[in-house]
Task: structure prediction
Amino acid sequence: MPSNDDHAGARVKRARKRRGYTQTELAARSAVSYSTLTKLEQGIIPASQSVIGALARALSVPVSELNGQPYLDELRHDQLDGLINPLREAMNIYDLGPDPDVRPRAVDVLERDAERLCEMVRATNIKQVAVELPALIHEATTVAWTHSEDRSWRLLASLYRTAYDVTTKLGFPDLCTVALDRMDWAAQRASDPVLGGMRQYLRALAYLRAADYRTGTRLIKIGESILEQADAGTVRDVVRGQLHLGAAVLAGRDKDKDTAEEHLAEAARIAERTGPAEKVHWLSFGPTNVSAHRVSVLAELDLYPEAVVEADGMVVPEGWPPSRLAHHHAEVARAQMWTGRTEDAFASLLAARKLAPQQTRYHPTVRETFVGLRSARRRLPETYLNYEAYLGI
Result:
């Protein structure tokens, strides 16, 4: 059992006592079994995100509080905490018009830089993106207000989407919301329904993380209706397919197996048409992503043996985005742990770290899975202790 309280169960216990609930009362309010809650609080078992969501709703606290995000000590250690305020400030000047002190480069140069940052996010170089992004947003904001062309507003919307990616990976849900609102503001000025539909998908994911599955599902439907205004073709198909994948995970976490399978099936049909389309708006869509989401949905449904079998049968093509593959390894590790394959689970965590060290360090599923593995072993080998130090717990 862990010797410290840096796990979700300990945070649940503190929040429960602050509300004045007994374990029995919280179990009844959240529909989480008393046995699960007591083991969770003691650190004997890790917390799944569906359980954390149910407890957060019952306690009236943000999910991020129970997950411990943002992990400020680790952010300070990695010198990432100082990069958040410049990003916040860059998004706050959206409606001030052109900045007379900013001399922006040409739009095509800024577009190339925006694409490069998107690629860096997929390569998991989060720190460098966070360093460069604020200045680029300042430039693009001035360009958009100066020229007021669809192309300039699309560029700005794309940069706000990158801001969403960065703040999501670092665990700042308040800034994620700001970034999505700014993305919508710019997308409307660009008259781009594809960006509008994609924004609803990203917004639905934010509600998934906040354990509000009903609202997330509504946003998916709104995204689909917005996409109807876009020109037919691969780009629209990719975003539509990604919307179905988002809906599948929402349904899975809400324990609605039939609906989740329907969305996965539709996403698979779309992926047959598009083929691999990882760089279309950098959504990583395609047959491989459908398979990875199937693993995730099975795990959300607590069908861990089936999730492991599905993962074992996956063939990941060379060059698949490291950020997406690292996330997949984290999901697989959770399923492997729950089926008793602890060594395989730790190997999956190591693979996630190798692919995306910054992203993996701030991933709540990784941290809770490691807590579970740590609880399962009386003596930790040196490799486990090294990983524990890497996570900062």
Notes: Residues 126-147 form the longest helix (22 residues). The mean pLDDT is 94. The chain has 22 helices and no strands.
